[in-house]
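Renewal narrative, Specific Aim 1. Our central claim is that a sequence can be written position by position from structural information alone. The example that follows is taken directly from our test logs and has not been curated for this report. It begins with the structure tokens describing the chain, in the order in which they were read.
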């Protein structure tokens, strides 16, 4: 790779795509000499080592994709490519805090650093990225509060902060973010009384706030979201009755209120059914006769625990975990904590169904 990049003819390149290969070794520092580079794609390789400081000299860079096997800290020079609109560095082993200097990349529209080992708090300077439409920081070691500065992101459409150690309240600016289309906040330690004004999102399509510490009664405002298709609030401390207004969300297809403290009747317009299948390891001779090879009886598992585990493994039935669609629903693949791989079929009820 080094010899290729040292070729003089390469210096004038404004786009270099080396993604989806088997390239290995470190990112060569010579890459910093490609000053005309506008788009650089080196993702899906076996590159290793840290991000070289020289990457910061690519001042004309517009898009950078480097989801591979990198580790170490984000170099301080990364504030220099001020024209960057896309910065994707996910599925690496990058660590340390996310530098406050990221807020100087004012042109950023898409920032994805999920599935790394970033620690510390979410930088408040992210609130300065007014053009940001996508922010993915999930599956890291981030802790503390969600900065109220994120409420300044009036163009934000896709927000994923799940599977961290975030706590405290959701900033008010995000509670009514009109641009928001998709939000994943599950598997944190967030708190809020859901009876408060929450859920007025004219463009929201999907939201997952499962596996947190939310309490109170769920707001009837969710029924006023005209584009909402998926609402997941499983594994919290929510009480009271399910508001009848929820059934007025005409586009709603996926609803998970499991593992809470709801009371009262189940509305026939609500709910979803999961059928779980797995390929088991060789069964012991003492296995109960009610189980069949390749299947397990869901009655042998703790329903709440199993449901929550499946929710986490599939990121609430996100399409990225889909493995097929049948006549009655979609199938997702989930790898459980026990190292068992499960196929989860989500059966959609017809509009004239009388029960769950």
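The sequence written for that structure reads:
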């Amino acid at each position: 790779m080094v010899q290729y990049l040292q070729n003089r003819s390469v210096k004038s390149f404004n786009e270099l795509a080396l993604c989806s290969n088997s390239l290995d070794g470190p990112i060569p520092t010579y890459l910093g000499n490609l000053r005309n580079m506008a788009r650089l794609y080196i993702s899906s390789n076996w590159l290793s080592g840290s991000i070289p400081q020289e990457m910061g000299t690519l001042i004309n860079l517009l898009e950078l994709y480097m989801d591979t096997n990198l580790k170490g800290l984000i170099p301080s020079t990364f504030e220099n490519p001020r024209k960057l609109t896309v910065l994707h560095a996910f599925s690496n082993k990058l660590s340390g805090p996310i530098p406050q200097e990221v807020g100087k990349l004012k042109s950023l529209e898409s920032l994805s650093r999920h599935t790394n080992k970033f620690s510390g708090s979410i930088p408040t300077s992210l609130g300065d990225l007014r053009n940001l439409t996508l922010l993915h920081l999930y599956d890291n070691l981030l802790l503390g509060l969600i900065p109220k500065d994120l409420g300044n992101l009036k163009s934000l459409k896709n927000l994923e902060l799940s599977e961290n150690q975030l706590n405290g309240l959701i900033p008010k600016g995000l509670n009514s973010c009109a641009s928001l289309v998709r939000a994943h906040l599950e598997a944190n330690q967030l708190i809020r009384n859901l009876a408060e004004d929450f859920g007025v999102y004219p463009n929201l399509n999907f939201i997952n706030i499962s596996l947190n510490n939310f309490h109170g009664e769920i707001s009837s405002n969710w029924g006023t979201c005209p584009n909402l298709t998926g609402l997941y609030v499983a594994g919290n401390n929510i009480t009271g009755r399910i508001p009848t207004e929820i059934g007025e969300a005409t586009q709603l297809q996926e609803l998970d209120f499991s593992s809470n403290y709801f009371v009262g009747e189940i509305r026939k317009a609500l709910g979803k059914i999961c059928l779980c299948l797995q390929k088991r390891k060789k069964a012991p001779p003492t296995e109960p006769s009610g189980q069949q090879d390749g299947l397990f009886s869901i009655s042998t598992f703790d329903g709440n625990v199993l449901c929550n585990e499946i929710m986490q493994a599939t990121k609430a039935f996100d399409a990225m975990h889909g493995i097929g669609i049948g006549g009655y629903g979609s199938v997702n693949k989930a790898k459980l904590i026990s190292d068992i791989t499960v196929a989860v079929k989500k059966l959609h009820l017809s509009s004239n169904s009388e029960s769950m």
